[in-house]
Amino acid sequence: MLDRITFDPKIMGGRACIRGMRITVAHVVNMVANGMAAEEILGDYPDLEPEDIRQALKYAAFMTRDEVYPLSATR
Question: pTM to 2 decimals?
Fold first, then answer.
């Protein structure tokens, strides 16, 4: 369950955020992707918790899942 990922049109234009804060999931995922350790992120953003980072990554994985649909032989 992704109970820490919130959407509010009044916060960051409705983008996926962490617990209603002005910290977007995209920003958290970008920090991880660029090599920042969770401890470093938490140090830079003291309002974040370890579970926030985990859920941001889970959300990103969910949003980028690949679904392959085989071509129909009858087109």
Answer: 0.85
CB < 8 Å & 24+ apart, contacts of 20-24: 21/47, 23/47, 23/48, 23/52
Closest CA to 23 of 36, 2, 4, 40: 4
pLDDT(31) > 80: yes
Which sign, positive or negative, has the C-alpha torsion 63, 21, 3, 57?
positive
Does the pLDDT at position 75 exceed 60? no
**What are 28's two structure tokens?**
């958290």
Instruction: Set out the domains of the chain in order of their start, with CATH numbers.
Output: 5-60 (1.10.10.10)
